[in-house]
Structure prediction request, 312 residues.
Amino acid sequence: MKRISSASSIGSLIAVLLCSLPHLSLGADILFFFGVSTHSHKEVVLPLIQKLSDQGHNISVFSIVPNSVAIEKELSKSKVIQVIPSGLLDEIGDKIDFLTVRLTEGVQGTDKLWSTFMDMGIKLCQVMMSRPDVIRWIKSSHYDVIVIDSLFNDCALGLVHYYNSSYVHLSTSSPPPWSSESYGYFDESYPELSYHYPAKMTFLQKVSNAMRSLYWHLTRRYYMFPFMESYINAGLELTEPVSLVNVENAVDLVLVNTHFAHEFPRALPPLVVPVGGMHCTEISTPLPEVSSLYFLAIPYSLLTKFVDHVIM
Prediction:
């Protein structure tokens, strides 16, 4: 089977973007909003950021988490403006050690984190809209297109409203349950990846799995959105209050980091473009040699859990 290179995949994606958002062909100001999302989310879309920048678009990346060394090195190769407000992460207050949670509590531990991320998204919106430096940045900028990471970074929908921008929704893994009702994913009774149900679910797991998307849909719209709307309306001094539901419903394009080769084959709506493997490259760096003494120094229980995590 012929291999499809990362470069050709990115080229195809650029063509899709140009067809969906015609004004991009003229050069555009594009904001990638990662908010509470961390390094792994940036790495997935990094090739797209670099390619758009190389083609003459003005790219800005907003995040509250400083870049890893590897991401910083890659971004330095392009003319990308990084917006990382000082101290914003500390003001939000919640810092999650993913590896410790995964190793100590297993997959069930990570299942509990989704509500924490939602609360972090609400807190981010509150802090952003009360920070004079962030408000100055917003009011002194303009973006034609805003790409919003799917991990409860919906405060950026307020920026889409403020700038009257085109809106691209980005999911850096398979479609999350909180997006299915909003963007028209078909209910195919697949186990939600976010909750680690087995492929052969029990009856109760099937019921719970089917209710997940509805739960998240109602929670976002009747719990999270009202908080965010109040912060956005006050912070940006909007004369016409924003409706995040209306902004979300007017999405122009949805990018999903999924592919039938490594996940369940899904019937996707026309506005959803699978970009699984976009971050892969044929250029590899050999792993450094590690002494066996290093592994002998690791407690057996910890190493066993780590291997289990890698296998899963």
